């Protein structure tokens, strides 16, 4: 059975988020929401995952993950990026699905959509970030050819449609870089 909850960021969670949020971030903690959702792992077991997203998107995110749960779409891990010291590379290497992280865009200096709680990365190993010959995470090299496999997101599949119906766009449609794990509400 799918379960979910949406709560504000309380003091205990704010303390836990010390690595991913700090003064100067483009969104205040009051505008973020802690979302817990059921998900199926690659062995078919049900787990409770956690994300932080912008308050305006929380209900829609729950709806997306309810659809993915109903489809038995596998998710390896869904933990706050703070469990990895807010290190995006470490989170990706662990094949962790995450959302909020007050950080710059990959390879740039401007704020990432993750810094606003308006982006989410899903199964990064099965859905790597690709620019030229660079693939992140490294284990994602096995999935660059986009052959059908558990957890792999493909054009116009149920995952892409679920996010699109909630107003999110997929980075797998980008030319360069191609960010197969990335969904955002702005298309960036």
TrEMBL record:
Q: Where is the Peptidase M15C domain?
A: 107-184
Enumerate the Pfam families for this protein.
Answer: Peptidase_M15_4 (PF13539)
GO molecular function annotation: peptidase activity
According to UniProt, the name of this protein is: Peptidase M15C domain-containing protein
This protein's species is: Cellulomonas persica
Q: What lineage, starting at the top, does this entry show?
A: Bacteria, Bacillati, Actinomycetota, Actinomycetes, Micrococcales
